[in-house]
Specification:
Number of helices of chain A: 14
Number of domains of chain A: 1
CATH architecture of chain A: Orthogonal Bundle
Order of helices and strands of chain A: HHHHHHEEEHHHHEHHHH
Oligomer: heterodimer
Distance between the termini of chain A: 25 Å
Distance between the termini of chain B: 35 Å
Structural class of chain B: mainly alpha
Number of strands of chain A: 4
Radius of gyration of chain A: 20 Å
Largest sheet of chain B: 2 strands, antiparallel
Shape of chain B: globular
Strand order of the largest sheet of chain A: 1-4
Strand order of the largest sheet of chain B: 1-2
Strand content of chain B: under 5%
CATH class of chain A: Mainly Alpha
Chain lengths: 319, 289
């Protein structure tokens, strides 16, 4: 994307103008969900795509963000803005502890740790009824309003919320861009490619992996916070394994280790479960087959094929 | 006395946990496959028992054996159909494919058996045996006997037979074993089928004690992984010990702390182990005991 400022600007322009051309509430709803899950996919990609560590429990950070900011709103009256900050800090802190523990060993351990954390948090959300209302879930998490003097922006409306989510997506994208092109990003990639070699040139792999998890989980927490305030209702299912798997599919299906890939993946894998409704009860079975197919046959992700097609077009134009 | 009762109940469930744990540790240690579809073998074991016994009326013990054999056949098909073509692919690719497979199987099970939880009315749950103030359900006695029997059989298979020797050699060094003329592909298939059978046995044993639904594999899988990590990756005796430990701690946790958090006990054990001894209780590199 760095090499392609034109494409980036085009995408940005398209995203900015989207609500003007597509006023259908359903389209806007899907666009908002794409943005929220896009944040989650970007956060996961930082970890999976750049450091090579797979988290299958990203719903833990998403869910903690959602619950923390909801509880802050319902019990303390803190609106979305504060909620996002609380979610960012809370999920980041959780990420710190998980990483400190899990990266004593690599690979499968981290995967199991992350899944386990998500499961335990789900149990806590189900059983700590005094705080979380258990399976009943938390309701009436209202989106904020801002008074600009001459007008009031109500983020309960879909269009303002769309721009709010878009703002956070752009923020995360820029953060990712700065991070990836810094010493951090290069260290992440070095660890992904060969950890022993990275250590031998003085990269503290443990430290960088922990940092990657903290940043990643903090962004996931923000996504959870936005989700809670958008849907205005959450229950222990925000910790569902499916959310984690779908986020992984967004990162892989879009293009892991690329900057635009996860966002492309978020578009695909927010829409695909919707489209698969035509299969009725067999919906998730078809989804599972797609997962297997993409993992085995398209590990480079859609972005790879998209750029391939775009470059083909360029060459024929040149001649 | 009630404390002893809890410990014994825990040991009984722990026997079944040990079975699913050693299945997973064999597959992970020998094939280097992080098998996320392992819990689905457990689920299928329970559902096949339900179909054979509750639906078709085949005698209980025969149904159990048939269920285990049927799951082993399913395991064989998966090994040849999915894992074999992926031998040269990265561990992550295989792991994610197995996650896809696990979701696929859960949803197919939901289509076949419906999402409504079923209970298997074992003929062995009708009476209670009282012994020195302790209560035993015959079904639970069956669980522990069957579990110990299968653990011993697997142990003998690994230690005393030629196939077992080849499996241990493959675990230690796949390439060297291959150079010595061991047919690795065959060892992988045998390993996966045995692993699937052990998970199915676990499911068929616990099915009549708990309820059966398409998603029981999720928790079973997570517990199996906890057992494998606590025991030490690839350690047979570690998985057996960790299985029994998990059973006892869960039983005590449910009794004295909160039954709502029963399923979190294993994970807390896992965290403690990772803090104190990250390689697991019996974890030694390149050793299978």
């Amino acid at each position: 994307m760095k090499k392609n400022p034109m494409t980036a600007l085009l995408c940005l322009g398209g995203a900015l103008l989207f609500p003007i051309f597509f006023t259908d509430p359903y389209f806007l709803h899907m666009a908002i969900l794409i943005g929220i899950y896009g944040l989650l996919a970007v956060s996961l990609n930082l970890l999976l795509g750049y450091t090579g560590q797979l988290s299958l429990g990203h719903s833990a950070f998403f869910g903690v963000g959602a619950y923390l900011s909801s509880l802050a709103y319902l019990n303390l009256g803190i609106p979305l803005w504060g909620g996002v900050a609380i979610a960012l800090a809370g999920s980041g802190l959780l990420g710190f502890f998980v990483a400190r523990l899990a990266f004593k060993l690599r690979g499968a351990y981290f995967v199991i740790m992350t899944i386990g954390i998500a499961e335990v948090l789900k149990l806590v959300a189900l059983n700590w009824v005094d705080l979380t209302k258990g399976p009943m879930g938390l309701t009436d998490i209202a989106p904020p309003e801002i008074n600009l003097g001459f007008m009031t922006v109500d983020f309960g409306q879909k269009m303002p919320f769309y721009y709010l989510v878009l703002f956070f997506v752009i923020l995360a994208f820029v953060l990712q861009n700065r991070l990836v092109n810094s010493t951090f990003g290069r260290s992440f990639i070095a660890i992904r490619e060969n950890e022993d070699l990275a250590e031998s040139v003085g990269i503290d792999a443990f430290k960088y992996l922990v940092i990657a998890v903290i940043v990643s989980s903090a962004i996931a927490g923000v996504a959870g916070s936005l989700y809670a305030h958008y849907v205005s209702f959450i229950d222990p299912n925000v910790f569902a394994f499916f959310i984690s798997v779908n986020a992984v599919m967004m990162a892989i299906g879009g293009g892991q280790g690329t900057q635009a890939g996860p966002l492309l993946g978020a578009i695909l894998f927010t829409l695909i479960p919707e489209w698969l409704r035509v299969f009725g009860d067999a919906r998730m079975a078809v989804y599972a087959l797609m997962v297997i197919f993409i993992v085995i046959f398209m590990p480079k992700g859609m972005l790879y094929y998209v750029t391939l097609i775009l470059n083909l077009g360029k060459k024929s134009d040149g001649r | 006395m009630i404390f002893i009762q809890y410990v014994i109940n825990g040991l009984i469930i722990g026997g079944a946990y040990a079975l699913i744990g050693i299945g997973l540790t064999l597959i992970l240690g020998i094939m280097k496959v992080v098998n996320f579809a392992h819990g689905e073998m457990y689920m299928l074991g329970a559902y096949f028992l339900f179909t054979f016994f509750s639906k078709l009326g085949i005698p209980f013990l025969l149904s159990m054996v048939l269920a285990i054999l049927a799951v082993m056949a399913v395991g064989f098909v998966f090994e040849k159909g999915i894992l074999k073509p992926l031998r040269k692919r990265s561990m992550d690719t295989v792991m994610l494919s197995m996650i896809g497979l696990s979701m696929f199987m859960q949803n197919i099970a939901m289509l076949i058996w419906s999402p409504v939880p079923e209970s298997i009315k074992s003929p062995l749950t009708m009476t209670t045996i009282t012994l020195g103030g302790l209560y035993f359900l015959p079904q639970r006695i069956l669980v522990i006997c069957f579990a110990i029997l299968l653990v011993l059989l697997t142990h003998l298979l690994l230690k005393k037979t030629k196939v077992g020797k080849a499996m241990r050699a493959t675990f230690q060094d796949m390439e060297a074993a291959s150079l010595m003329g061991i047919r690795i592909d065959r060892i992988y298939s045998i390993t996966f089928v045995i692993g699937a059978g052990l998970a199915a046995a676990s499911g068929a044993l616990l099915g009549p004690i708990f309820t059966v639904h398409p998603y029981i594999g999720n928790l079973a899988n997570l517990k199996a992984f906890v057992i494998v990590i606590i025991g030490g990756l690839g350690s047979f005796s570690g998985a057996v010990t960790a299985g029994f430990l998990l059973g006892v701690f869960e039983s005590l946790g449910a009794a004295y702390i909160s039954s709502g958090y029963q399923d979190a006990v294993g994970f807390i054990l896992l965290i403690l182990i990772l803090i104190k001894k990250p390689t697991g209780l019996f974890g030694k590199v390149g050793q299978m005991r």
